[in-house]
Amino acid sequence: MATAEPPAPEQAPTTELPIRTGSDSADFDIVATYHSLLKSDPDLTKPVAAINALIALLNTVPSTTVYETLDIIKVHSERLKASVENPIPLAAGTDLFNQYIISSLKQQDGSFDAVRQHLLRNGRLFAQRAVEARNGVAEAGWRYVTEGSTVLTHGASRSVTGLLARAAKSRPGKFKVIYVRDEWRPKESDRVVSELRQLGIPTAEIDLATVAHVMASLRKVSMVIVGAEVVTQSGGIISRMGSYQIAKLAKSSNIPFYVAGETHKFSRIYLHDQNKLGFKQSVLDFKLEGSSSHLENPVDFTPPDLISQLITENGVKLPSYVVEQILDIYGSLNG
Amino acid sequence: MATEANTSAPAEPPQAPAPQNTQNEAQPKDQKSKGEQPAKGGEAAGEKKLSGAELKKKAKEEKAARRAQAKAAQTSQGQPSGGQEGAGDGGKGGKGKPKQDGQGGGQHKGHHAKPVAAPVVPKEVKPAVPECFGHLSMARRINITQADKDVDPAVLVLGQHMSTFALSDSITRLEATLYAFKKVIDSYTTPIGTTFSRHFTSHVLNPQIDYLTACRPMCFSMGNAIRWLKLQISKIDIDLPDLEAKKLLCESIDNFIHERVTLADFVIASTAADLIEDDQVVLTYAHHHLVQRALLQAQEQGKQFSVVLIDDAFERVGVEHSKALAAAGIPVTYVSDLGALRSNLRDVSVVLVAAEAMFSNGAMYARSGTCDIAMAAKDLGIQVVALCETINFTERVSIDSLTYNEIDPERLSDVGFRLLFDTTRDRYISTIITELGNASPTAVPAILRKLEEL
């Protein structure tokens, strides 16, 4: 799908709408659109990229009836989910979009065209809001990084770096960061560390094996802040592999564990424990010879009882805030 | 009558609590039942001639006779004295009050409806419940002849079933109550000069509720449903003809049962069945129809799992349950009681229990013994899943097993008594499954708030 490649892809297809009217929705490559969106705009998170891909889809498909449109969205959402290894983050986006359409249809008394026009005209709105939400997270949470504190973090969450950047602006040089390196992603780790150092934040690098040692040394770590791919219904998070481990260690050392995440990452998924993440992830690769393979993008689940607070654009909330929001948006707990 | 009793009281030497009980009991009842005023007026006038002391004496005798009669009807029945209940309930408002009114009123009315014959000399064999547990209520067998004359036959039978625990779990009781109330509504005709919405609740529905409460304290779901029903009745347009009002009400009761019980049970059972995976060992306690349904459904889906069933040593409802599961082809290990709990839990992957009610702080009110299992399971890192319809959710808060509970009427003796329920704190529960889906126990207040909106 070359047409969807420019950074502002929604506008582009809109102009090309007449050309595409003849084509069937099956021709639309939602997967390619999603990936190109994700690549083209570093500000896009997975849920928002999924929403934008769906809007691009609506642009290309001549809408007829409400039911048909919902059906098309459903089919393509499923296709998109099936195409990636871990579909949970983008499922949060597609669910939200679906619910948005349904609820705006209810509000508009079923005038479907109005909703559709509004969506197409404001295709950029979701992405904008996502950026605003990230700034909101930084704004809500930066005061938690007090003077003289040391923040431990890992992964490459943009909400976390945004929050730290915001804190560095107001308290330059007044706090330090311990960055936990990812053994399998040296490049990413280097990038994050250099970003932090450029912001004027004194940054130390450790590996995952050192976390317990550092945390146990009295007052070396004041708090942990991590990002999340998805915030589950119970207020737990699905996040980069290692978050759970760090959360457990933080709990046993009585160090507050904060999660910086926008509310569009809230998902209806409910996890009982690590066993069922909602998708297949085979971490264990038993072998007799040869080197063990490692996963491309492994995640784990941190249960809500290990999380002190969620830093969202609506303020700093307890994990139970998520279920209230989910009930507000969807009216039920599970899809 | 109430005022008489009050004026006579000061003349009395502050005496044994029994007469004051009658006074306490008489008060709320008389205030309520204005409908019977004419009959009572005559009676009161007759009584007025008696002096205060005589009045008290008479009341005491009558009460003793009633007790003796009740004793004769059921040997094992205990007597958590009304005085204690009055004292216990005096402080708290809310649902405690109707319960108290119900018990007092039910008894008292019983006596009016059928004046007691020969006052048997009462040999008070009352297994006393210590005062600190006086607030706990208990099911009691009320002789049908002692019931208020206004109680509908269907409700009379239902009351007997409840007091004998033939209907025991909260959802079955709720369903039966609503069906009985439908019959009451059906057989009702609004008297001339009044309207359905103004007359029915106070004069017809309340006596039924009082009687049911006297038979066995209401469970939380019944309280919720009755509150809902009264609201529906009050909403009925006063100009609506009787027939249509009744039809409307019966329909909404049917819908209520369908949504909050039938569909809810269906969703909960299938959600719980989805939870069970191949090669798991599911532990469950005693018997609950939701758990049974969930397990059978998982079996139907072809899942290979086994069940450890721990039975309630005081009520062997698990025997039939395990037979039913085994008959369906599920391997069942039957354990007769809570002994060796830890070793029974060793290979278990999930504990599946059903709740009688959920408190708004996430605590679970369930068959006593559930808490022991949940605590041990949580300690071993096993997830504890509670099944509960949202109609059983209450906005009240409980952190112990004594604030709300019921005494087992079969096991009340001079040396001790047994409680029917216990409270499991939220930290020992991993997941609750309701008709809205899976949730963590901390989500209960959010769900309650959502239910209010609906």
From TrEMBL, chain A:
Residues 1-22 are annotated as: Disordered. It comes from the Eukaryota. SUPFAM superfamilies: NagB/RpiA/CoA transferase-like. Keywords: Cytoplasm, Initiation factor, Protein biosynthesis. It is found in: Cytoplasm, Cytosol. Residues 1-10 have a biased composition (Pro residues). The keyword ATP-binding does not apply. It holds the Pfam family IF-2B. Component of the translation initiation factor 2B (eIF2B) complex which is a heterodecamer of two sets of five different subunits: alpha, beta, gamma, delta and epsilon. Subunits alpha, beta and delta comprise a regulatory subcomplex and subunits epsilon and gamma comprise a catalytic subcomplex. Within the complex, the hexameric regulatory complex resides at the center, with the two heterodimeric catalytic subcomplexes bound on opposite sides. Belongs to the eIF-2B alpha/beta/delta subunits family. This is Translation initiation factor eIF2B subunit alpha. The lineage of its organism: Eukaryota, Fungi, Dikarya, Ascomycota, Pezizomycotina.
UniProtKB/TrEMBL annotation, chain B:
The keyword Cell inner membrane does not apply. Keywords: Cytoplasm, Initiation factor, Protein biosynthesis. SUPFAM superfamilies: NagB/RpiA/CoA transferase-like. Residues 27-37, 45-65 have a biased composition (Basic and acidic residues). InterPro entries: IF-2B-related, IF_2B-like_C, NagB/RpiA_transferase-like. It comes from the Eukaryota. It holds the Pfam family IF-2B. Gene3D superfamilies: Translation initiation factor eif-2b, domain 2. Component of the translation initiation factor 2B (eIF2B) complex which is a heterodecamer of two sets of five different subunits: alpha, beta, gamma, delta and epsilon. Subunits alpha, beta and delta comprise a regulatory subcomplex and subunits epsilon and gamma comprise a catalytic subcomplex. Within the complex, the hexameric regulatory complex resides at the center, with the two heterodimeric catalytic subcomplexes bound on opposite sides. Belongs to the eIF-2B alpha/beta/delta subunits family. This is Translation initiation factor eIF2B subunit delta. It comes from Bionectria ochroleuca.
